[in-house]
Amino acid sequence: MPELPEVQTVINLLKAKKLIGLRISDVNVIKSKLLKNVSILGLKKATIGAKITSLNRIGKNIIINLSNKKSIVIHLRMEGKLFLEGIKPEWNTKHLMLEFILTQHKVLRYYDTRMFGTLHVYDQKNLLNQLHIKKIAIDPLNVKFNGEYLKKAITNKNKPIKTCLLDQTLVSGIGNIYCDEILFAAKIHPLTKPKDIKNFNVLAQKSTEILKKAIKLKGTTVFSYHSAPNTSGSFQKYLAVYGRTHQKCVRCKTMIKKIVVGGRGTYFCPNCQRL
DNA sequence: CAGCGTGTTGAGGA
DNA sequence: TTCCTCAACACGCT
């Protein structure tokens, strides 16, 4: 379920395992469905021989910058996993889609059960002009993100606040789980229309606060998320509403309700979060 | 066996 | 044109 904290955790772990500085010596494409704007040959030409120089994140996208001024952009979507391993795979290879063979006997492997993930290759100088990258809004960790930004971005929208927070072109990084947690923390009903929101500052603060805490805890492990083999997050211990249908609200003991908003399962406390 | 799901896109409707 | 909703993607789990 990688949302911003899980994606950031993946990046943090890749850095901790010293991915930066390694050179790509070969590429094995097992399932080419992952490749979106390059052929297998194109990917090989663009990456073999290049050194990995830096890693960063745009919204939920992982950006791998190379010494030849190319960037590999990976989006994990629902179930993607990007692990830095040794020669021997440390995960079920049934869902292995791609391998970057690296120096120092390391292999960067991409696994994806549902094969929804995407990989693009761009020239670094063109990266920010690519439509699907350019349209991604700032995330709640950005210094420019605050109540005023949020108000400006969403106040004229006519869809539920929950749907707005999930729209990556308005604010990036938030997914279904943290969205419910943020709205609970801010005491806002998920169906509230943006024009009825009184305190955008609280909403913005809670967004930043919750994502930061989740990064500190290496993300949330529910469904199948793992940031690395043998590495789970622990934020799930702090989930206040997500997945807690028919359990008591941690604040007021009212039963948590589940509804569908914009096609997504949505958990909230009918007492703390009123329309 | 049927239904559900963490994310995003694009088709179609208003 | 612009905004919004919802099915579809592919597979494992309950």
Keywords:
275 residues, alpha+beta, four-stranded antiparallel beta sheet, 10 strands, DNA-binding
Give structural notes.
The chain has 275 residues and is an alpha+beta fold. Helix content is 24%, strand content 22%. The protein contains seven helices and ten strands. It has helices spanning 4-16, 40-47, 131-134, 147-154, 161-166, 176-185, 200-216; strands spanning 24-29, 52-58, 61-66, 70-75, 80-85, 96-102, 107-112, 118-123, 257-261, 264-268. The strands form three sheets. The protein has a four-stranded antiparallel sheet with strand order 1-6-7-5, with helices on one face. Strands 2-3-4-8 form a four-stranded antiparallel sheet, with helices on one face. A two-stranded antiparallel ribbon has the order 9-10. A hairpin with a 3-residue loop joins strand 3 (61-66) and strand 4. Helix 1 (4-16) packs parallel to helix 7 (200-216), helix 4 (147-154) packs across helix 7 (200-216) and helix 6 packs across helix 7. The radius of gyration is 20 Å and the shape is globular. The mean pLDDT is 94. The structure holds a DNA duplex (14 and 14 nucleotides).
Q: Quick gist of this model?
A:
With 275 residues, the chain is α+β, with helices and mostly antiparallel strands. It contains seven helices and ten strands.
Name the average pLDDT: 94
In angstroms, what is the radius of gyration? 20 Å
The percent range for strand residues is 15-25%
Count of extended strands: 10
Specify the number of helices: 7
Enumerate the strands of the largest sheet in spatial order, edge to edge or round the barrel: 1-6-7-5
**Oligomeric form:** single chain
Low-confidence regions: none
Basic shape: globular
